[in-house]
Design a protein that fits this description.
31% of the residues are buried. The chain has eight helices and seven strands. By secondary structure, it is an alpha/beta fold. It is elongated. Helix 6 packs antiparallel against helix 8.
Length: 249
Amino acid sequence: MKKLIAILLAAVMMVFSAAVSAADDTAPKDAVGMSLAGLSAYDVFGNPVDDSVFSRAAVTVINYWAVWCGPCLAEMPDFVTLDQYYGATPEADVQIIGVVYYIEPEEIPEAQDIITQNGYNWTNLVANDQLIEIAATYDPQGIFVPQTLIVDRNGVIRAHWGGRFTNYSELYGFVSGWLEVIAEDYPVIIPGDANGDGTVDSTDALMVLRMALMILPVSNFEAADINGNGEVDSADALMILRLSLGLPQ
């Protein structure tokens, strides 16, 4: 009897382990850490887009959608609001890119109409193999839309949201939260702002001159080397002084 019970327990454990393994295989995952470097795609109007697009903003919000996806279209007004907000605050350095997932080719002209009629003023790419591979990480059973990614300047995916946002506050909180995180990794460099106080003034010029004379060690090189010649010298100090006085370079 004890042997029979042991066999039954072993069988139950095997079934349980198999079920857990199967659940793990089908559980939603994400694309965090994957890279979009080397991206080569076209927008819905036929214009080429490559991975240089990511260098244009500290944060790129990529939203996957489809013309037949009700939840996708339901959250689009919130993306319009988000685009308008960051368009009015360019110093925040956020851009939106859409990815149109399609099954039939005629869905692309339909997407063009939806984009034009509803004021989706951001770039909308046609899903290609690379973009589909990214989206497929979320659901191994098939492509799931909507999905939203946060991508940094280097094209690295930092966050992956599956499903629609319930409201604008949720969307804004997701994006602004990641903007804060990424801003710490990639601080904004203001050319000429050698002391890093957020403004370019005579104190920056004096600081750079002292660096050029080796009175101070060189620091904040990217901001101090305003002429981009690869060294911090008196020419940089003069350019910064002229910039602080509003004089032409």
